[in-house]
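Supplementary Methods S3. Complex input for the coenzyme A-bound model.
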Amino acid sequence: MIALWEACGLTRPWNDPQRDFALALASGASTVLVARVPVLGGEALAGSVMTGFDGHRGWVYYLAVAPGHRRKGLGRALMAGAEAWLRERGAPKIQLMVREENEAVAFYEALGLERQKVVTLGRFLD
Ligand SMILES: CC(C)(COP(=O)(O)OP(=O)(O)OC[C@H]1O[C@@H](n2cnc3c(N)ncnc32)[C@H](O)[C@@H]1OP(=O)(O)O)[C@@H](O)C(=O)NCCC(=O)NCCS
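Predicted complex, serialized as structure tokens:
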């Protein structure tokens, strides 16, 4: 999973992806969904999405489709899976943060998500 995130440029030096992954699975309020594709002799991991419900909104992180499997609908299917997971838990809204220059913005807009006029603020907790 971490290799997939690295191949998709989603890891950052100030984040610990292994910890993120473990914490997402440890809490009942979040999960990681995966997309698998058939390969000779079995299946390979081709995509992932982390999602969680904070009681107000559903959030999406680590949406990743392996470079060799893009533009085949896996990203759309992973987002549909995240939406279904959130809907089951009563989340009224899905939301995510993405760098403005990321071409994934066009992907999200193709899925009907809209840009919002908000400023994101944050800091690490001591
Ligand atoms: C964004 C990402 C998950 C899309 O996955 P994907 O499986 O290729 O997406 P899909 O095939 O489901 O695409 C659905 C639609 O989104 C749009 N779309 C997808 N990738 C696009 C791109 N690079 N540029 C413009 N539109 C795009 C298209 O309309 C596409 O439909 P079409 O193929 O019929 O034209 C993938 O490019 C990726 O892993 N990127 C790197 C990681 C990343 O930036 N993740 C988001 C972090 S916030």
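The beta strands are 30-39, 42-53, 58-65, 94-96. The radius of gyration is 15 Å.
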